[in-house]
User: What shape does this take?
Amino acid sequence: PGTTTTGALRDHVAAQLTRARDRSRLLTDAVDDHDLVRQHSKLMSPLVWDLAHIGNQEELWLVRDVGGREPVRQDIDELYDAFKHARSARPELPLLGPAEARRYVGEVRDKVFDVLESSPLEGRRLLDGGFAFGMIVQHEQQHAETMLATHQLRVGDPVLDAPPPPRGGPVGPAEVLVPGGPFTMGTSTEAWALDNERPAHRVVTDPFFIDTAPVTNGAYADFIADGGYRDPRWWSEAGWAHARQASLHAPRFWERQGDRWLRTAFGVTAPVDPDQPVVHVCFHEAEAYARWAGKRLPTEIEWEKAARFDPATGRSRRYPWGDGEPTEAHANLGQRHLSPAPVGAYPAGASALGVHQLIGDVWEWTSSDFRGYAGFEVFPYAEYSQVFFGPDHKVLRGGSFGSDASAVRSTFRNWDYPIRRQIFAGFRCARDAERDELT
Ligand code: AVJ
Ligand code: FE
Assistant: This one.
C-alpha cells in the first residue's frame, strides 16, 4: 500500500474515531452528573464507568501497545477492567468523576491522534488495515449501544431526541425458501472483523424457510392474547421456569392500559406500534413465540445464509444488499431513530433472497450457542470472545437501531444470556422445508 491508500485509511480511522466520540459525548452530556454516576439498573454500569472504560481500553491498545507510549493513568486499569468488578458493584468503586473522566478520555484521544499520524498501519497483524484502531472504534460504539440501553432503563423526563423511523411497506410473502447446499460463512478478508467472525468456512445447510421480516409487536400481542405466557407447551423447561420465576407476561417496558398495550421508550410512553419489530424480549420468549407460531428460531448458520447467500452467483455478500457500506436507505442503524422501523421500511436493504431488515432495527436471537468456528484463533485477546464460548450464551445477529454501522456486519456475532431483555433484541422465525415444498 502506497502513501495515498495509507493516507485514506488514516483519514477513515480518524473520522470513525471522531464519530464514535461524538456519540459517547451525546449520550453522556444528555444527563446531569447525578445521572452519570448513579446506577439505573443492576444490569448496567453507571454511565461514567462506561465513559472512562472506553478511554482505558483505548489507552491500553492504542497509546501503550500500538504507540509504545508511557501510560496516561496506569493506576486506574483495575477499576475499568470489566472482569474485576461486576456491573452491579461498579457504583461503589472510587471511579473518576464526570469531569475527571471527560478530561481522561480527551487526553487519551489526543495521544491516539498523535500515534495515528506516525503509525504505518501495516507490518504487524494488529495494525493491518488499521485493525487495532477499528477494534477500538467498535469497542466505543458497542459501549455507546450499552449506554443507550442504560438510557432506556433510566426513569425520568426524556433527554434524547431523534426523528421517527421511516414508514413501513410491503415485504412480499411472509417467508422465503432458502435453498439447501453450501455457502461461505464468516470472513477471512474483512479488515475490521473480530476474532469470532473468522475464518471464512464452507457450511452445508438443508433447505429451510425464514421469515422475510422480524416478528412484529402486533403478532407478538396475538401470542400474549392467546395465553402464550400461561401455556407451558410453548416453552422450554428452562424458559418456563424462568418465565414463572421472573413473572414474565409481556416484553419489557410494555404496560397494559384498558384493551391496549403502551410502551415506554426513552422516557416517552405511547401505544405500541403493531408494525414495528418487537424489542426487549429474551431468548426464552422468542423461542416460545416461535413454537406457538408452529416455527422455530433460525440457527446462526441459517441467519447468515439468509443474509449473505446470492443464489445467482453462489457467493456470500458482505451485506444483505451487496458489498457496499450501509446507508440510510439500507438499514436503521446508529441511533438515527430511537426505535425499530416498521416492517418494510428498508426495501433497498433486502437480501438476494428477499429477506428484509436483517441488519439494524433489532438484534435477532438465534437458537445457537456462542462458540468459535473451526479454525478459530484468539485475536488479540481471549477476553473479547473466547471466555464467553459455551452453552451459557446465545448468539444474536444483525444489530439494532442502536448499533453503529462500524460495529455490525453480516458476519458480526453478538451474544448474551438467554434471560436478558434490556438489550435491543427481537427475533424472526424459521422452519424446516418439507419435501413437497421444494421447488
Ligand atoms: C459483544 C456486546 C457482548 O458488551 O459485553 C464491550 C462487547 N466487549 N467491551 C459486551 C464488549 C468488551 C460485548 N458484547
Ligand atoms: Fe468494554
Observations:
- The pocket of N,N,N-trimethyl-histidine (ligand 1) is lined by residues 139, 142-143, 146, 384, 414-415 (CB under 6 Å).
